Amino acid sequence: MMLRKSVAQVQEETRTSELKRSLGPWNLVFLGIGCIIGAGIFVRTGNAAALHAGPAVLISYLIAGVVCAFAGLCYAELASTLPVSGSAYTYSYTTIGEFAAWVMGALLLLEYGLAASVVAVGWSGYMVSLLGDMGLHIPADLTGPTGHPIMVDGVATGASYLFNLPAFLVCGALAMLLVIGVSESAKFNNAIVAIKVTVLVAFIIVGGFIILKNLPAYTPNWDPFIPAPTGEKGEFGWSGILRAASIVFFAYIGFEAVSTAGQEAKDPGKDMPFGIIGSLLACTVIYILVSIVLTMIVNYKMLNVPDPVAVAVDAFGPQWAWFAKTIKVGAIIGLTSVILVLMYGQTRIFYTMARDGLLPKPFAKVHPKFRTPYINTMLVGVIVACAAGFFDINTLGDMTSVGTLAAFGIVCLTVIWLRRTHPDIPRGYRVPLYPVLPALGILSCFALIFTVETRVLVFFAWYTGAMIVLYFVYGMRNSELAKGHFETGEGEFPLFPEDAPLDEKGEPIVRP
After folding, report:
1. Which residues on adjacent β-strands are paired with residue 23?
2. 227-264 pLDDT per residue, tens
3. What is the CATH number of the domain that holds 255?
4. Residue 355: inside a domain, yes or no?
């Protein structure tokens, strides 16, 4: 359970090449903004406002941003300390050990796999709205989660949804695209980022203009700013603001991608924390401004929909119909790229775990023509598509947030563990106010977890327990590291002396 990989092993597996240190602090900020802005602001803001926080959802965004900052600083230290590429799964395997890596892999399934389902449901909402503007109407019972009442303008119609067909189809199509192979282009990704940011900035500017032009007509939507609590846990009041913080936390998923650029930063010690905190700060400001426009243009009670921004732009008035279509197209393009990236990330985590022996070997089987892990990708596609087709966005989003918060809490714990067990490892960056900030990161992550509905926490407990049992039944017995199938060759050195090979005198061979 405590077996650890050496850095040399990780680098050999991933065939990491020497990367050019070309990213400055502002490059990292823009990278972070591109990764962060996605489904959260386009999809979950409306649910958080309508069901939990009202207009005070902007305070929820501020709280979620602070929690992410704690975890972000810990990611920055790990990225500058461990010269390995990969996700938090790789960090865990290289530091705490195999069991922690397995748990992290299980949590990342919630962070990436279910997050892709949430985005797909949001994509479906915007697509249905756009097609409706064009006179094309998909049957209402094929646009929502199975068994849930069909809603029109926030009011139940008495009928129920059968299936979310658009969400299912987009997941299937993107899974097939991933099987064939997607060649990532920096210019293409930059264009997608530009579209997403432009859409939100345009929404803020136009919405702000409309509000200021007739402010008295819109201020009643902010009365009260913090709706009175209903007596139920997490429904309005400050309890609702904290509950909404766990929901909109989803909007910050992706900032940890900045930490993976540690080997390409010009000065990791200074640039990594600047990039992470800078991107979080910029996105928090954008999110708060979007929340202000959303909740002033439309009464918060009308926002419990998968496409809140579309609902808001439709409320701008008929003279802005062209703008509404533009916003929806931009949102659809941005959300499509997010689904693709999340599914890609999930397949590669499964691929790495299968190569490590922790998952069955077919997960690592590569297609002879396309050179992609096709069995793994098709399975991920089926899981994500079914989740998006059958389940409602609130349940999926809550499960994603819980898994991500738990993963971030473990990352904060990893920093403390590594400081105590290996204090002398060179660190390009150190979390300030140690151990206070990592401890606050752990406490705040788990505090937000317990604001989630009990049924979601019960699912999370069963899921985690099942994954742990699966490790002992399969993972531990088939681990390649436990079988000794990894060798540390000449010129390759492990991260910790106790992992090093021994010379003829029984002394560890370490880097001079």
Report:
1. 265
2. 888 888 888 889 899 999 988 887 887 777 676 565 56
3. 1.20.1740.10
4. yes
